[in-house]
Design brief:
With 296 residues, this protein is mainly beta. Helix content is 10%, strand content 42%. It has helices at 231-234, 263-272, 274-277, 284-294; strands at residues 2-3, 12-15, 18-26, 35-38, 41-51, 56-61, 64-74, 79-84, 92-97, 100-102, 109-111, 114-120, 123-125, 139-142, 146-152, 155-158, 164-167, 174-179, 182-185, 202-204, 209-214, 217-218, 243-247, 257-261. The protein starts with a strand and ends with a helix.
């Protein structure tokens, strides 16, 4: 058990530490970062609490091959979790499970340098409304040194900012997969608090490449677009989308679904997707209802 309650500077700092385990670490109310790891390799950390620090709750700098489980960072003045480089080898092969950040005064989770980053059932929400930033995101992935990131499950909500912001900062991330992630922003509900700002559930920079979103749920106030084609149309990247999948339930009000893609891709799915091969065509009445609803 490491307890850095009220430390005058960084609560706990580990540098050039390899093959070590941290359990039940408390790094709270420090005048700098709560827990800072730099140039560390093969670290396993479980049950971390990094709350109410003057800068970052959990700060990773040039760390590799490490796993974090049940790490929570709340009420930090800059970021809850920050992953970056200080001119070293960079961060790579980091794995977060059941981790989260909330009520930061800046972006809850900020990543500017990471290769092979995995976030599983990780969340970020409820930025502190009294902060100085006009907009804060749940998760920021920014810069050309962010590559091969996979986010599985969990949820990210921005405060007058984006739920997830894939941003261009002298270059944009390459290879981001969002699988079953809940996205949102509370921007619409917070215009009256003096901070202003707008946000989307998901924002993707036009320069970002190889971004995949599967089974996501967008709950932001402005995830739509002029024609209703969604985030990709709004951000001007619709021509980079290979396949669009949509349900005919919910708003359309019938049943079934469809994909929209190139003729070659549709023919491939028709010929090789077992779920399609053994399914039955929509009833004429259902198809007619879907066409009518789409025209409303």
């Amino acid at each position: 058990i490491l307890n850095s309650l009220g430390a005058p500077f960084i609560g706990i700092r580990l540098a050039n530490v390899d093959r070590s385990t941290l359990r039940r670490v408390l790094a709270n109310v420090c005048l700098d970062d709560g827990l800072q790891l730099e140039d560390c390799d093969w670290i396993t950390a479980t049950d971390l609490i990094c709350d109410e620090n003057a800068l970052v709750g959990l700060h990773l700098i040039d760390c590799q091959n490490s796993r974090f489980v049940n790490a929570v960072a709340r009420n930090n003045d800059l970021n809850g979790i920050k992953i970056e480089t200080n001119g070293g080898a960079g961060c790579h092969s980091l794995f977060f499970v059941n981790c989260g950040a909330e009520q930061s005064r800046g972006d809850n989770i900020f990543v500017s340098n990471a290769r092979e980053l995995r976030l599983v059932n990780t969340w970020a929400k409820d930025q502190e409304s009294t902060g100085t930033n006009t907009a804060a995101a749940g998760l920021v992935l920014t810069g050309p040194n962010v590559k091969n990131v996979r986010v599985i499950g969990g949820g990210f909500v921005g405060h007058n900012g984006h739920g997830i912001n894939i941003a261009d900062n002298s270059g944009a991330p390459d290879g981001v997969e969002l699988l079953g992630v809940t996205l949102g922003t509370d921007a619409a509900e917070n215009h009256g608090n003096g901070r202003g700002g707008t946000g989307y559930g998901l924002s993707i920079a036009a320069a970002a490449t190889d971004v995949t979103v599967i089974g996501g749920e967008a709950k932001g106030n402005a995830t739509g677009s002029i024609t209703g084609a969604g985030v990709a149309e709004r951000d001007g990247v619709l021509d980079g989308i290979d396949i669009v999948e949509c349900t005919l339930g919910k708003a359309i009000g019938v049943m079934g679904g469809y994909i929209a893609a190139s003729a070659a891709l549709c023919d491939f799915v028709r010929s090789f997707a077992s779920g399609f091969i053994f399914s039955t065509a929509l009833l004429p009445a259902v198809a007619a209802g879907a066409v009518f609803a789409a025209g409303l």
